[in-house]
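Posting this for the archive.
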Amino acid sequence: MPTLSPGSSLAVLVVDDHHLLRRGLIGVLSEMPGLHICGEASSGEEALRLARELEPDLVMMDLRMPGIGGLEAARRIRIALPRVRIVGVTAWEDEPLQRLFRHGFAACVGKSVSREELASVIERVMGGDGTRVAEPQRVPLNSNPFDRLTGREMQVCLLLLAGARPADIALRLFISVKTVHTFRYRILEKLQLSTDIELARLATQHGLIGGGAPEATRPIIGA
């Protein structure tokens, strides 16, 4: 079981879009000494909101969910809360581990994992030594160029990638249109890019947006 200092307790956020599976995992985790469930979410979007609100120590994240999914949710959570540890939970045996670690996961377990194995993974992940379970080779978390962006820059970047116009972004984030353009300039500069199309291509490569042609070819900044 996870080894904690006397009186300490790790807050855990459980994320899975299947209610029964989520409740089952909560039941298992609740029986582990030193852990308490601080929240549960059924989507990546809800996980991101609750993570910012609750600031958990550990997130158990289903990888394949509707919406932004577990990968992108993990990336955004790690940007907002760098100290949080995220363990992926999957029913698939062939998950690309290096891709998971680049998105901020500390480990990945199968949904058929035993209680003892799960406890061992959590102990290793929360041990503070940076161990990544089942990692074929060590991949730095900052290998993703989008990790260079600040939280606000990432917000603007994601809105640009979604096709939002500067005026809409300004209204949503309570900033001026001029500030939106300044953020865009900084984003391109930090990512060493020149155009919006290059930004879309890079975002596609790193899983921020889908690989469809319309997103990769149309201008992101409106007139």
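The first strand starts at residue 10 and ends at 15. DSSP finds ten helices and five strands in the chain.
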